[in-house]
Amino acid sequence: MADITALLHAALLVTDLARAKAFYETVLGLVPCARPQLPYPGIWYGLGDGRQLHLMQLPDPDAGSVRPEHGGRDRHVAFGVRDLDALKVRLDAAGVACTTSRSGRVALFCRDPDGNALEFVASA
Asked: Helix-strand-coil percent breakdown of the chain, rounded to 5?
């Protein structure tokens, strides 16, 4: 059995940091946190309990690859959210296409402006 106890951060590649920042802050409501000095542009977001999301503006080795239409069938990051219905309203207002979980769970999937798949699940 592994001694892994938590997922501490997830990192996503983006091509346009300003566009990604607008999506993650305006649509999803994330708040930036401290980021170390690194030799590439990026922004870190705190997700509570020391967990973070890292956006890194670096070349995408998968650029041009075909991604599945439904984010649940692609590599993705899952986030717990307090109000899934309110998030759906914000995503719709921003013109972000969403799909529901195909497993029957109550979850939403969408893609960020760079095509990264995101999952949202209601949590306390």
From this structure: 20, 35, 45
